[in-house]
Amino acid sequence: MITSFPQRIISLVPSQTELLFDLGLAERVVGITKFCIHPAEFCRHMPKIGGTKHFHFDTIDGLQPDLILANKEENYKEGIEQLQQKYPVWMSDIYTLEDALHMISEVGKLTGTQSKALEISVQIQTAFAGLQAVSRKKVAYLIWRNPYMAAGSHTFIHDMMVRCGFENVFADHVRYPEITPEMLADANPDYIYLSSEPFPFSEKYIAEFKEICPESIIKIVDGEMFSWYGSRLRLSVPYFRQLLELLA
């Protein structure tokens, strides 16, 4: 049990690492993953405990955390269970904006930063309340190549798509289904969004998808805006507005 506010925090989740910084907790963070990149100057010099799905347990032991922040989807069960034998581990499980706001509130309570957490949550809620969705466009959101993988339902990405007014053409699939070129062609999306993460899609892949769906508009999108569920959500709505203006 956590009996006092933690002073040595490890974050195993990039979006939650950024949240800790924005809550004013930089001096209490002692370790992060190699995928934690925001804010850059802060993350560059922090001790790295491995990746989100492969922890360096000896490094973690050396850091002696009194709180570890993790996430059900982004981290791996066996590693988390091993850490739980030694340390307090707080797990988030996020599929919707409401889940994200609850996580921000809970991290604020855990760390004694409730007022700042509330401030961030209100900023996010206000921004999303003013988001004007466009008429429904059929969208396929790709996160991986070889094999192709898309965002289906019961994902945070899906919730962001719905809030933009998009129809997720793979909403009848749960989580992150593997899809074939034939499945993509049959879905006949108006837009194919190639996410910048976790696979680093770039402009060079557009022609590949144009061959599969000649009538679709293919666009590289910022994966952080669709999938990071911490304080970075304050930047998502302005990004979505720019995206939606191109569809108007």
TrEMBL record:
Keywords assigned by UniProt, alphabetized: Signal
InterPro entries to which the protein is assigned, alphabetical: ABC_Transporter_SBP, ABC_transptr_periplasmic_BD, Vit_B12_bind_prot
Pfam families noted in UniProt: Peripla_BP_2
Domain Fe/B12 periplasmic-binding residues, every copy: 8-248
Superkingdom to which the source organism belongs: Bacteria
Record flagged with keyword Signal: yes
PANTHER family: PERIPLASMIC BINDING PROTEIN, VITAMIN B12-BINDING PROTEIN
Name of the protein described by the UniProt record: ABC transporter substrate-binding protein
